[in-house]
Design a protein that fits this description.
It is a single chain. With about 800 residues, the protein is an alpha+beta fold. The protein has a five-stranded antiparallel β-sheet with strand order 5-6-4-8-7. The chain starts with a helix and ends with a helix. The structure holds uridine 5'-triphosphate. Uridine 5'-triphosphate (UTP) binds near residues 204, 216, 316 and 376. Uridine 5'-triphosphate binds near residues 216, 320 and 377.
Length: about 800
């Protein structure tokens, strides 16, 4: 059996050469072989083998030769079942026959002359089927594109020139735009037959000036003026009949619907059918109805283009106009966005497409083993614009200011949202900011490297961050905020809060980064911190005279050249997660306003103490400085006042010169009471009103290695008691500790340690940092304990906060 030969014995068990995975024992091997992955790959291999045995390789063709030409020529040797044309250059093809005998017939023919060409026909090479895991394949392709880019970038004289090169190298070419427009025209002609007076409008990267080769074609089918759906319309393109998958005519498969009551999904189902039946070269049509806005996806064979069609998406067309306007306002935006998008793609932070001359087009929408859900390009572009709004002086005005610059005819209200801005960039006075691209790029990284994502909501409308507390108490305050912006749409729920909150500039109830999880947000910030550090080095600024990598090349190289920041080993962070807080606590924090950090910190400290004491059975030998929450609050707010004062100031300080930008990542102060150290902006923090006071702390003793083997014990307890792991988290974990203490021997020497909590935020992500220090650790176990606590403590605190809030 083929599956048997796929499994090889290794010193540590087995290895499946087909799926490239290690399997520990025979029973796992049996399961693996029956599993979906192995079965799918096995089927693909069989199909490929069959194709190989039924096809010939044909070279010597020209790009103007079509599939139909090849079918016509080769069918004299037997029935042709498929033709695969090399799309990029059109110089070779694979001709597949239904019968293997046809191959011999084709190969034995001495001369193949077709349309004046002399074709060469060869047997297919016998290649071993090799599965390349997607991630590896994506990374390989990215690497290959970068490898081709490196020499060109390295020889340019400056980072500015490199950024401009990136823009020109990747931007959508005129010919590509023309081809897209033709396709849109064709779609328009077809759709108008079924939906009279409808309009197909492009939005997104195809037209927002940030499009790269092979980017998606985002389309909006505007049915505002369409009163009826003509199910019986006959679109009679010559190509139409050959597009019908099953030979039926298009009018027989479209049902009549009432457009006034039809849901977007129902309309899109018709759109999908029309695409399948009436549009030449369109295939792989399918609907994604689970998306925020349902969408029909399709692929256009000839243009090798991925298309998306949505209905009721007027706001996207308008925000595309907004991006076009921003590009026109300042010429530095485009190279900056192209560079940052490329950087984000290399670091696997954002969904991007790249064009490779010989390889398939990639779309990295997510990566299960990478940083998690990715930033979409729209969100990334908004981050760049927001940064430019916060430069000193601003490069791009706030959306509110743009609204004021518009004239009466430009007023625009869509779905109740105010979308007014000037139609032409000329209406916007030029910026007084003269920083070059190189400085702005470094500034971008510096800006987000020390950004307090946890407690901020990014608003391009206001051009500043809005406090998260404004959004914690859902509707009331949110609507108040909207009223200020003269939006009239009633009773909207607030944006979905997450680890990264970017309000759409127009649809203010939408967080465009709402799909991100903590991991992706952390990865983004970490990548900014690493890049910021690199941008302070000479290798960023100066061209290497020895032909070494410099400037953007090192920045783009995955993990290459950029020094990695290492986390503090004995610190544990408990992040402020606005989105995961219980309702009651959200309301309290909302009321606390600017003081929310100290209130939250107090609650976290109470939970931390409970976890150490009641769950992990640590003995408390001393607790000092707690219960003085007012002092703490005062110190915390003093720090916030000094460090977060205004985001504009922090960005400005770092952006005035490359050198200043470079200093931004210098020593930073973590603690609210460490008054002598520098804030990230290099400003001296004001002295605490009460002079220097030590942070509160606990001294704990732990006599057992309560962190070791917890998972196994937990499983046993759940099994014994038939308990659900969720729900009684605190009880369960306490029982786990008790069982470990009962069963395992005491540590040779008890571990004595100090835990000092403090809260940070304003100029970095809001979180509680616990600093752990050994007082006596002769058994050398503190590292292990900290490693365990790092994952355990934040989760426990989260569920305790919820429990406490439920009880209060
Ligand atoms: P994309 O994130 O796909 O951006 O959103 P893009 O610039 O087209 O990049 P590609 O396609 O990945 O290369 C496409 C468009 O969808 C709208 C915006 O108009 C954006 O330009 N959009 C996207 C929203 O309105 N809101 C969102 O949250 C995301």
């Amino acid at each position: 059996m083929e599956s048997e030969s796929d499994i090889k014995t290794t010193p540590r068990g087995f290895h499946c050469v087909l799926c490239k995975v290690n399997v520990p024992n025979q029973s796992s091997v049996d399961q693996h072989v029956k599993g979906r992955k192995h079965q799918t790959l096995s089927n693909v291999r069989t199909t490929r083998k069959t194709q190989e045995q039924h096809s010939v390789f044909v070279s010597g063709i020209k790009p103007d030769i079509s599939q139909a030409d090849l079918v016509e020529y080769f069918q004299k040797f037997g029935t042709v079942s498929d033709i695969i044309l090399d799309k990029d250059r059109g110089v070779f093809a694979i001709v597949q026959f239904s019968e293997t005998d046809s191959i011999q017939a084709a190969l034995s023919c001495i001369e193949h002359r077709m349309k004046g060409l002399n074709l060469r026909v060869k047997p297919r090479e016998k290649k071993e089927f090799a599965y390349i895991p997607k991630k590896k394949c994506d990374l390989q392709n990215l690497q290959q594109v970068l490898d081709r880019l490196k020499p060109q970038l390295c020889q340019l004289p400056s980072v500015n020139a490199q950024m401009q090169y990136i823009e020109s190298r990747f931007q959508l070419g005129d010919a590509e735009k023309k081809a897209r427009n033709l396709l849109v025209q064709l779609l328009q002609e077809i759709f108008v037959e079924f939906f009279p007076d409808s309009q197909i409008l492009q939005f997104g990267s195809s037209v927002n000036t940030f499009g790269i080769h092979s980017c998606d074609l985002d389309l909006f089918l505007d049915l505002e003026n369409t009163k009826v759906f003509q199910a019986r319309a006959k679109y009679t393109s010559e190509a139409a009949e050959c597009m019908s998958d099953d030979g039926r005519s298009e009018d027989s498969i479209l049902s009549d619907i009432d457009l006034s009551t039809a849901s977007p999904v129902e309309i899109l189902e018709l759109v999908a059918t029309i695409l399948r039946r009436c549009v030449p070269s369109v295939h792989k049509v399918h609907m994604v109805s689970s998306a925020r806005l349902p969408v029909v996806k399709f692929h256009h064979r000839e243009l090798n283009l991925q298309g998306d069609i949505t209905v009721n998406n007027k706001l996207a067309v308008r925000n595309t106009r907004f991006l076009q306007l921003c590009s026109g306002i300042d010429h530095r935006l485009r190279p900056l966005v192209f560079t940052i998008r490329y950087w984000a793609k290399q670091k696997q932070l954002a969904a991007c497409q790249i064009q490779s001359e010989v390889l398939f087009v990639l779309k990295l929408k997510g990566n299960p083993s990478g940083p998690g859900p990715l930033l979409n390009n729209y969100a990334l572009t908004l981050l760049v614009i927001f940064f430019l709004q916060n430069c000193e002086p601003p490069v791009i005005p706030t959306v509110d200011r743009l609204k004021d610059m518009a004239c009466e005819e430009e007023e625009c209200l869509i779905e109740g949202w105010n979308c007014t801005f000037p139609s032409q960039p000329i209406a916007v006075p030029p910026s007084g900011n003269t920083q070059d691209l190189c400085t702005l790029l470094a500034g971008f990284f510096s800006f987000y490297a020390k950004f307090d994502f946890a407690s901020s909501v990014i608003s391009l409308r206001a051009g500043r961050v809005l406090p998260i507390t404004d959004f914690l108490c859902n509707k009331d305050n949110y609507n108040k905020d909207k009223d200020q912006e003269k939006n009239t749409k009633p009773q909207q729920s607030g944006p979905k809060l997450g680890p990264l909150n970017i309000l759409d500039p127009f649809e203010l109830s939408h967080n465009v980064a709402g799909n991100l999880n903590e991991r992706s947000q952390k990865c983004f910030q970490k990548a900014c911190q690493d890049a910021e550090k690199y941008c302070r080095s000479l290798q960023y600024l100066r061209k290497s005279t020895k032909g070494k990598m410099w400037g953007l090349v090192r920045l783009f190289t995955p993990d290459g050249g950029v020094e990695q920041t290492t986390p503090d080993e004995l610190n544990i962070s408990i992040p402020f997660k606005s989105f995961a807080l219980p309702e009651a606590l959200r309301n309290q924090l909302h009321v606390a306003g600017d003081d929310f950090r100290s209130l939250w910190f107090e609650k976290v400290c109470t939970c931390v103490q409970k976890v150490f004491q009641s769950v992990l059975r640590c003995e408390l030998t001393l607790s000092a400085g707690f219960g003085v929450s007012e002092d703490l609050a005062a110190d915390v707010s003093v720090e916030m006042e000094t460090s977060s004062g205004s985001l504009n100031t922090s960005a400005n300080d770092s952006l005035n010169s490359p050198t200043n930008a470079a200093q931004v990542g210098a020593k930073r102060r973590l603690s609210a009471s460490d008054e002598t150290s520098l804030s990230p902006q290099g400003k001296k923090a004001r002295m605490s009103k009460r002079g220097k006071r030590e942070l509160p702390y606990w001294l704990w003793v732990q006599k057992h290695s309560v962190w070791a083997g917890r998972r196994k014990v937990r499983r046993e307890i759940i099994k014994d008691a038939d308990l659900q792991p969720e729900g009684s988290c605190m009880d369960l974990e306490t029982r786990v500790t008790d069982r470990i203490i009962e069963k395992e021997e005491e540590l040779k020497e008890p571990l004595e340690f100090k835990v000092q909590p403090h809260v940070v935020g304003g100029t970095e992500n809001t979180r509680t940092v616990l600093k752990l220090e050994p007082c006596s650790d002769r058994a050398g176990v503190l590292q292990d304990f900290v490693h365990f606590l790092d994952a355990f403590l934040p989760k426990m605190v989260e569920s305790l906060l919820e429990k406490e809030a439920g009880g209060s």
